[in-house]
Amino acid sequence: MPSDAIRAALIRRLRISSAIADEDIREIEALPISVRQYPAETAVVRDGERATDCCLIADGFCARSKTIASGKRQILSLHIPGEIPDLMSLFLHVMDHDLSTLTAATLGFISHETLQKLHRRRPVVAEMFWRDTLIDAAMFREWIVNVGQRPAPARLAHVMIELRERLRIIGRVDGASFEMPLTQEQIGEALGITAVHANRVIRQLREEGIVELHRGRVTVLDERKFLQLADFDGRYLHQSPTL
Amino acid sequence: MPSDAIRAALIRRLRISSAIADEDIREIEALPISVRQYPAETAVVRDGERATDCCLIADGFCARSKTIASGKRQILSLHIPGEIPDLMSLFLHVMDHDLSTLTAATLGFISHETLQKLHRRRPVVAEMFWRDTLIDAAMFREWIVNVGQRPAPARLAHVMIELRERLRIIGRVDGASFEMPLTQEQIGEALGITAVHANRVIRQLREEGIVELHRGRVTVLDERKFLQLADFDGRYLHQSPTL
DNA sequence: GGACGTCCTTAACTTTTGTTGGAACCCGGT
DNA sequence: ACCGGGTTCCAACAAAAGTTAAGGACGTCC
Questions:
Q1: How far apart are CA A174 and CA A184, in angstroms?
Q2: Sheet bearing A105-111, strands edge to edge
Q3: Domain termination residue (choose one: A122, A144, A166)
Q4: What is the layout of strands, in order, in the sheet containing B43-45?
Q5: What is the DSSP string of B165-211?
Q6: Which residues contact A114 (CB under 8 A, 6 or more apart)?
Q7: Does A138 contact B at CB distance below 8 Å?
Q8: Structural domain boundaries, residue A197
């Protein structure tokens, strides 16, 4: 994938949540990015490490997670092309969680130094990236609610719909189906349940004719039931720059 | 409480996580703040509202929460004097959650306009506040882990220790005891369990001689057991500006 | 094309947590 | 001093989720 296409995905996403001037877009397009390939299931940055770059996903899926002393892992967020999952490392240099690939991925790295210089030169760009980290935090808030208050089937539906709404922005939803390349183990880690229970819940949603999950692809069978179960209100994604 | 004391609490807290120049401190001290009193259990800003100010806690405890369609409420974070719990509203104008007082509180309001002007004038101050919102997000990540992966007794212990470590910064820990003015209903909402189960867990920790919770005050009975149970690693609080 | 590993699937059983309902306690107001 | 409302506390039962164990599907590598 050419480096230009990567930038385009980023800019498309930023435009959804912030109004950007053409001049600022040119600045972002001029950002030096070094591209690297990663296999599936590989750590990009680890908890405790000191980051010097931010990572822009050009292609593939990533996830952030934390592992506790007992060895249990919690997935905190899923990430798709055009996103910068570790933007927070710009000012929180020591990572407090892991960032890793779910699928094979193409990642672009932008140095903290470059970004900080750009921010000083163009405060509006800084605000746009700041806003991006705030939306990240808003998604964490909703994730807390999901894990803390919703029954397991609703949790799964909610995570699916959030992912779908984000994939939609980058044109990656194909009718009633979209990618969600997680194993049942990982789905459990995202929802705060065990893999066995994740399996039960997936089966239940299939048997009730709501949604089908097969080989990393979600197919919605009954959109109305699906939305109702998920209790989804996308306001927290803050996708409107005018507000 | 005089307006100066409020600023002092804010600056003390910011100093813990960022290095600040004297000149920037003077700028923060010069910020116009309008102070207001709130009774306990009162909404400061509500989900869906458009915020025009940020709220600095001068005195008292606050909490952020979200309520889902079924009526269940999830507490997302607790806040203590010196903090600005809705700093995120600076760039995410429409609230995606509630901010309310737990106890009677004195709150200082700083307009978004004032803050944005200060940021343009002093990019370093902007970065410091940005960092503050990033730490906020880091605390959400840990909260996800808490609710998602730890058994209920560990969840309670973890929330208690997080609160204690933050109270320590502002000199509000008195030996083995500190304030935690939540009802058992609210503790349940914070931990993602019911009030009845919260009561069970509190009783269990008391019977095991680990920690006592009485009338909004926590008293640690066995520090070693307490720490071990909570599985607490404070790195996510990012309290060292040098890193 | 067989062996291996990973993931998915399911069942049986255990533990944790939710639900319901009620009694005791505490505090503020009259 | 007494009342009333909100907590706190508790027990019995129901439901949800965790644990353990084991077979089956599928893809990959020799």
A1: 22
A2: A34-38, A105-111, A53-59
A3: A144
A4: B43-45, B98-101, B62-67, B73-79
A5: HHHHHTT-EETTEEE----HHHHHHHHTS-HHHHHHHHHHHHHTTSE
A6: A31, A32
A7: yes
A8: 152-237
Of B94, B144, B191, which is closest to A143 when you measure between CB atoms? Answer: B144
Contact residues for strand C with beta carbon within 7 Å? A 183-185, 195-196, 199-200, 202-203; B 151-152, 188, 192-194, 196-197, 200-201, 215
Both B123 and B165 in one domain: the answer is: no
Structure tokens at B228: 């071990």
A137 with A85, same domain: the answer is yes
The tens digit of pLDDT for each residue in B71-126 reads 999 999 999 999 999 999 999 999 999 999 999 999 999 999 999 999 999 999 99
pTM of the entire predicted model? 0.96
Within a domain: B60: yes
Q: Is A69 on the interface with B (CB under 8 A)?
A: yes
Q: Are residues B129 and B199 in the same domain?
A: no
Do both B132 and B47 map to the same domain? yes
Q: What is the mean pLDDT of chain B?
A: 94
Strand D lies under 7 A from the Cβ of residue A192: yes
| Min Cα separation A233/chain B (Å) | 9
Between CA B40 and C1' D1 the distance (Å) reads 28
What CATH number is associated with residue B7?
2.60.120.10
> Over its length of 243 residues, how does chain A's per-residue pLDDT go in tens digits?
566 778 888 898 899 888 889 999 999 999 999 999 999 999 999 999 999 999 999 999 999 999 999 999 999 999 999 999 999 999 999 999 999 999 999 999 999 999 999 999 999 999 999 999 999 999 999 999 999 999 999 999 999 999 999 999 999 999 999 999 999 999 999 999 999 999 999 999 999 999 999 999 999 999 999 999 999 999 999 998 766
